[in-house]
Amino acid sequence: MSKVRFFLKRITQTVFLLWLVLTFLFFLFRLMPGDISDILLYQGADPDTVAEFEESWGLNDPLYVQYFQYIYNFILLEPGYSVQTNEPVWDFVKMNIFNTFILAAPAITLAYILGAVIGTVTGTKRGGKLEKFVPVPLLTIGAIPEFFLAILMIIVFAGFLGWFPTSSMIDPAVANQYSDDPWWRIYFTQSFAMHFVLPFTTVVLRYLFLPSLIMRTSVVEVLGQDFIFYKRVTGLPKSARLKSIAKHSSLPVITLYPISMARAIGGLVLIETVFNWPGMGYALVQAVLARDFATVQFVFFVIAAFVIVANFVIDIFYSVIDPRVSLDD
Amino acid sequence: MTSDMPLLQVKNLEKYYDQQAGIVDWILRKDSDPVQAVDGVSFRLDENESLGVIGESGCGKTTLIETLIGLHEPTSGEILFKGTDVSTFDKGDWKQFRREVQMIFQDPFNALDPKLSVRETLEEQLKIHDIDERDRRIRDVLEQVELSPVDNYLDRLPKQLSGGQKQRVSIARALIVEPELILADEPVSMLDVSTQAAILQLLSDLIDDFGVSMVYISHDLSTVSYVCHQLQVMYLGRVVESGATEVVLNEPKHPYTRALLSAIPIPDSEAERERTELPGTPGDPINIGNGCRFRDRCPDRMELCDKTPESYALSTDHHVACHLHSEHDDQGDLNAVSSSGDVANGQSISAGEGGDEL
Amino acid sequence: MSDDPLLEVENLTVQYKTKEGMLTAVSDASFAVSEGEYFGVVGESGCGKSTLLLSILNALDSNGQVTNGVIRYKGEEIQDLSEQELNQRIRWKEIAYIPQGSMNSLDPLERISTQAVQLAGLHSDLNEEEALTKFEEMFEIVGIDPERIHDYPHQFSGGMKQRAIIALALFLEPSLIIADEPTTALDVIMQDQIFKHIDDIVDRVGTSIMLITHDIAVVFESCDRMAVMHGGQIAEVGPVTRIDNEPHHPYSTLLQEAFPDIREPNRDLSVIEGKPPRQIGETDYCTFVDRCPWATEECREAPPPLERAEADRSDHFVSCFRKDDVREENEQGTDDRKAPNQKSGSLANDE
């Protein structure tokens, strides 16, 4: 019963939050200074053109009609037309969203897995060499602004060493070669893999410190818990105890995972720009420059929605591994 | 002093908490039942008097003390300090109140700021209340709590003090602003038995020699006799028995008080104590309706117990809220104490809950 | 029952490595617990009773070690056994433990039955079904509805968790259960119920119990024999009736006088000034010397040996240079103190 209640509650909250974000974005873009037609056409366009424009874009409808239309369109994944290309925004950005996810999701996931291992090792061997020498470089790298880290990576590995290409996602020649194949074909080329390494490594390095340090603190804390001592005295072998320690200490790390993921997706704007990676951030920058507000709005929403949904998923996951969660609501 | 006005008078105090309502409840418009943490508590405390509030964890004694000190707004009822209802206090009155009413906490290990020396801890308190002659006062108060020679202690940090010494500093901090009322929350429960006696003695001296009144909260009946003149035994938010300390300890009338007393181990290898036989644990005071709150665990449960017991006066000094002690049912109302105003000076009485009856 | 004690601690010294040097937590402690005996260890915080218990469980922190003496269990020295040997032969099969922090001693992510089945798999031949049946019986003994073995710890109240922990300790029928302040953080009524269950265990199951506590009243009421500890040293060991009625060590005497007794709410309580010392290096004096009203220079020069309290008694030992003087003074005081005890006998059972 209480589990059902818990799910129900979390779903309600999630839907409510998504609606709140949508509403906020709707009013945010309508409150922006300047007339929309001025922004989207050009300043001083003749009144007939403006009238026609406003008519075709539904700008003359009452605000609430616009609002409901907007919500309705979003639910159907039809968030309007891009003024850059006159294509529907969804068609325009879906590949960019995908490109961002194939960069961020594996990179953050790897950073968290590596971080959990580093954290466990440094946490269980307190006072050891590792504990002394690992956190500082991790923190240093984590403290470097991501665009700067990206530039450093390019200078060292693409410039000096020449191991990897400097930018973009794939060699245009290779892309052309596969232009008649299904869209996913290019992701299985050597050219893509070579282009992938530097931005991927940059994201992993940039986000490694957080899970490592949190995991370490968490392991140290769990080691001091009564139930771990109790397990030892009951004669549970070390391997079984380690398993339990890992399970308990990963809880806070799991909580952070979607937060890092969301931050990475937002933060990729800079890394994508430096690497010329055709992802969401890249699209966002282009859209902002072109005042393509339908695209901007949608990308904002995707980022926010990702955070909200990720948190929902983690909460559900949490309630499965931690029996206390659903009852303590 | 024997003026008619009590220092602190509490009339029918109630403190209910709302349970946290979730968004689902909100949508379904479901009202949750409040937690009846303190439910109809009344007493009066005169100058130079000390009142012990006894009960297990969850009985509402901590909520009571927090409400008394103004941390919570009472749900209903009155708290009169020197005859004035605290709900009418303005900012200045509260400031005055916060000086005259001081608290001593259970955990001396966390009640002191670890970065402040003894002198700084006490000085801070004087600064807050804008009191001069700080050095003299600090020395005097440390003598008073028997931390002497004073110079040995002035510059020590809490970590350089033992548990008992820390609790003395806590007491000094309360005492230095010359309060009229001290609220003490289990001040000896975390101390070793070797220092417990000294702290009890100190607290008792404060009342007898320095004119301080005290509300003393404890779950342990074995030490209250050293500090308290009066006792109130609480169970799930209500007072079940009250009276002079010796009377309650020697002639406990409420089955709960008896259980509490009989559960205390006796330091005698030859004593044959019968262990208390009380099933279950106290629940939560949520949606428990009418009737005696102890009835589910009570060895003497009767049919009558589904009706909320009045507080019966066994003597001017002893009240019990239990149907066992109504002479018989019809006369219950005659014996019951209905309000707190008409009781002889210095007696604390427990709640009359007329409104609760069907 | 054989004459050999179940657990024998001999000249045990336990030290912790600290920045200031070796901190001695237990110094030259000796005592024995026989089969089926209910043995109490009493002392204040800092007296070394927790370290003593940890060393018997072989679970000292990594900076702590037994630097001298032996711990014998059923005649075998166990202080140097490897973790593996302990896990296979001693832990839970032979020596079980009831921890102080029982509120947090059960893994919150696992059902209590899962934890029990795991233990049965490690230390017994029981299969899962047998283990569950047996664990249900244990729940019955400690007064919890057997169906609740599958609950998670957070579904239990504090008292129930403590009883579940006792059930786990009993589960594999160990010969010795070590209980460390099993009722701190519990209310008096719950405390009384818990001790009732522990008493039952001694009576019905015949397990030996070593109870570590600060509460001398609990030990006087329940235990057969006891040790009083102060500052890492054993002050006195003997039958509880002896230590209650004829304490020879000043600390035993004062501790009793400091303890409140509900039957005599107005008795003066004695205060023991100071606290046990923090001992860096070997303890070469009596650690009670600075708190002791009977202390002389002699007490600072060497640690007092644990000797027979009276030449004709082989079950009562005390470590005090001045035990005879203390005894003499007590003899006079005791009579006055004991008299009112009998009068106000059973206050709680009045009526």
From TrEMBL, chain A:
Q: Which organism is it from?
A: Natrialba swarupiae
Q: Which family does it belong to?
A: Belongs to the binding-protein-dependent transport system permease family.
Location of the protein in the cell:
Cell membrane
Keyword Ubl conjugation listed: no
Family matches, as InterPro entries: BPD_transp_1_N, MetI-like
Question: What keywords were assigned to this record?
Answer: Cell membrane, Membrane, Transmembrane, Transmembrane helix, Transport
GO BP terms: namely: transmembrane transport
Supply the name of the protein. Answer: ABC transporter permease
Give the ABC transmembrane type-1 domain ranges. Answer: 97-314
What residues form the membrane-spanning segments? 12-32, 97-121, 133-164, 184-209, 295-318
Q: Does the keyword Lipoprotein apply?
A: no
Q: Which domain of life is it from?
A: Archaea
Q: How the protein sits in the membrane?
A: Multi-pass membrane protein
Automatic annotation (TrEMBL), chain B:
Give one Pfam family: ABC_tran
Domain of life, source organism? Archaea
Domain ABC transporter as annotated: residue spans: 8-261
Under PROSITE patterns, the record lists: ABC_TRANSPORTER_1, ABC_TRANSPORTER_2
Which of UniProt's keywords are assigned here? ATP-binding, Nucleotide-binding, Transport
Gene Ontology molecular function: ATP binding; ATP hydrolysis activity
Region (Disordered): which ranges?
Answer: 331-358
Q: Which PANTHER family match?
A: ABC TRANSPORTER, ATP-BINDING PROTEIN, TRANSPORT ATP-BINDING PROTEIN
Protein name (database record): ABC transporter ATP-binding protein
- Native organism: Natrialba swarupiae
UniProtKB/TrEMBL annotation, chain C:
Provide this UniProt record's keywords sorted from A to Z: ATP-binding, Cell inner membrane, Cell membrane, Membrane, Nucleotide-binding, Translocase, Transport
| Composition skew (Basic and acidic residues), residue ranges | 322-339
Which superkingdom heads the taxonomic lineage of this protein's source?
A: Archaea
**Keyword presence, Translocase:** yes
GO BP terms, alphabetized: peptide transport
Principal subcellular localisation of the protein: membrane
Protein name as it appears in the record: ABC transporter ATP-binding protein
